[in-house]
Design a protein that fits this description.
- By secondary structure, this protein is α/β, with parallel strands linked by helices.
- It folds into 2 domains: 153 residues, D-Maltodextrin-Binding Protein, domain 2; 104 residues, D-Maltodextrin-Binding Protein, domain 2 (3-Layer(aba) Sandwich), CATH 3.40.190.
- The protein contains 10 helices and 11 strands.
- Strand 2 and strand 3 form a beta hairpin.
- It is globular.
């Protein structure tokens, strides 16, 4: 199944890949990675199927596998760093990283601090409620209710009616009115707040909700997607040559079926080849 998104996404990605600070040496990321013999990939290990850390400190998840495949395609091993969601979005490098695979949706606001050279999967936003809750059947039914969301995400922007997924300002159908937004640290925390009755609903991705259900969390997804969004590899601004290498590598992962295989492994559906 293919989804159609505004063509302006393509313009956003091309602009991000082409943007470079005047006078900045190009491909410095590749040079630094080669010198240390590894790429540093920023990830956010807060919930499967995207990313998590096990008791032995080993990371697992779709984003982890994609980062490893991307680094290998670029010719080096990968080291994972966890600077935190907010620091990644701000483009900060207190914990230096070369690229981020953290399920980040490109937006004009985020493009001020980051480049987005390549999309690697699609996502769908959904409303989740407790499994025994019968008064909610459609997303609009949670209007006026307390809704938990991961902070500084497109989910929070949606509830605040401030979501813009492309430079052209594509229209978003806001069906939830007067939400009492409760920002939390992660998608997993949003679902926990729901189950613990600290929220009436949660807004997250369909894969995250389905994975939580599979793990036994007593939740259900309301029928109807709120919106579809792409997620992209992020890089620091200023190195167009490295951005092009990332874009080419991700495209090769798509063309040879690697992204589709990893998506099916973690989500049970191919979200890696459905790209606008």
């Amino acid at each position: 199944m293919r989804f159609s998104l505004p063509v302006a996404f393509a313009a956003l990605l091309l602009f991000s890949a082409a943007t470079a600070v005047a006078g900045t040496p190009q491909d410095t990321v590749m040079q630094a990675a080669t010198a240390r013999n590894a790429f540093k990939a920023a990830v956010v290990p807060d919930q499967l199927p995207l990313a998590t850390v096990d008791a032995d400190g080993k990371m697992h998840g779709f984003d982890i596998d994609v980062a490893e495949a991307l680094a290998k395609r670029l010719g080096l091993p990968v080291q994972f760093v966890t600077p935190g969601w907010s620091n990644i979005l701000a483009g900060e490098s207190a914990k230096p990283w070369d690229f981020a695979v953290a399920s980040i949706t490109p937006t004009p606001r985020r493009e001020k601090h980051l480049s987005f050279p390549a999309l690697y999967r699609m996502d769908a936003a959904v409303v989740v409620v407790r499994s025994g809750e019968t008064k909610f059947e459609r997303p609009q039914d949670v209007s006026g209710k307390t809704i938990a969301v991961k902070a500084k995400t497109t989910f929070e922007r949606y509830l605040r009616k401030d979501l813009n997924l492309d430079e052209g300002g594509a229209d978003i159908a806001y069906v939830i009115e007067n939400a009492k937004v409760t920002p939390v640290a992660s998608n997993g925390d949003a679902l926990k707040a729901l189950v613990n009755k600290k929220a009436d609903a949660a807004l997250t991705t369909l894969p995250s909700a389905e994975a939580a259900k599979k793990d036994g969390m007593p939740i259900r997804v309301l029928g109807g997607f709120l919106y579809f969004e792409p997620v992209a590899v992020a890089t620091h601004k200023g190195d167009a040559e490295f951005d092009q290498k990332v874009a080419d590598a991700v495209e090769s992962l798509r063309q040879d079926g690697t992204l589709s295989a990893l998506s099916t492994k973690w989500f049970g559906i191919d979200l890696g080849s459905v790209i606008p």
